[in-house]
Here is the input.
Amino acid sequence: MKVKQKLQVSVVIVTLVVLLGGCSQPLSTREKGTLLGGGIGAASGAIIGGAVGHPGAGAAIGGAMGALSGGVIGDQLQGQENRSAYQQRQITQQSREIQQQRRDIERLKQRSDRDEEEY
Here is the structure.
């Protein structure tokens, strides 16, 4: 019976990997966290469930709890990434503005120097 249940857990994990691996876009941080948490939770649940005689139930419960906690953690990490990317875009835009202002100041200085020479 244990071999059959281990096989079932393995089939579920392989199926999840194949389904999620076939996505057309790269996984987001949230999705990676959910997948990783679900996999670790399912494996841990199967081990713990195997100790009490119910590895399938343990894997299902562990997978669900792992996916939930992994999703929450992944969501927080993705939020940090989004905030960081937004701040970086702002920094880049402000750097461009500063460079433009420096060029304008230099141009005004040169114009002022020419005007002073004429008088």
Observations:
- Residues 55-118 form the longest helix (64 residues).
- Helices lie at 2-21, 29-52, 55-118.
- Residues 30 and 79 are 9 Å apart (CA to CA).
